Amino acid sequence: ENAALLKAIIQNAIDGIITIDERGLIETINPAACTLFNYAPEEVVGKNISYLMPPPDRTQHDEYIRRYQHTGVPHIIGIGREVTGLRKDGTTFPFRLGVSEVAYSGRKIYTGFIHDLSRQKEAEEQLKEYA
Ligand code: HEM
Q: Are 94 and 118 spatial neighbours (Cβ–Cβ below 8 Å)?
């Protein structure tokens, strides 16, 4: 069935996938995202997405969402951005974030796609050293 297929795709995706509600609270997180941030799903579901990022974004993310909801002007939705994630152990890592807005059973949710850039960034840094 279609729902089961979708679930299998999300569960096995290489990239992290997180969905949040209109307030920014985490509703679902796939295994790849759990591995990247080093949390079990039950540790983060229900928490604000800002829990997974360092300052200054951490203190401003609610405002980013509110501003978008009031102005309709996206800064990441449909564009993408390189941002910094905060793991459970306090370390950070760079990733490419893609966000889309989804109308789902009469309400609005946001889905975030997380593509880890740590290895690519490390390689770039090493190349700079030899340049
Ligand atoms: C907006 C950072 C994760 C949903 C933004 C902006 C930044 C940001 C910098 C816009 C700033 C501006 O207005 O110029 C981050 C960081 C994340 C993260 C550092 C690391 C965990 C997520 C995830 C989702 C999400 C996983 C969705 C599941 C949104 C939404 C907006 C937004 C809905 C407002 C719409 C827009 O500006 O296009 N975020 N974000 N964010 N983010 Fe995040």
A: yes
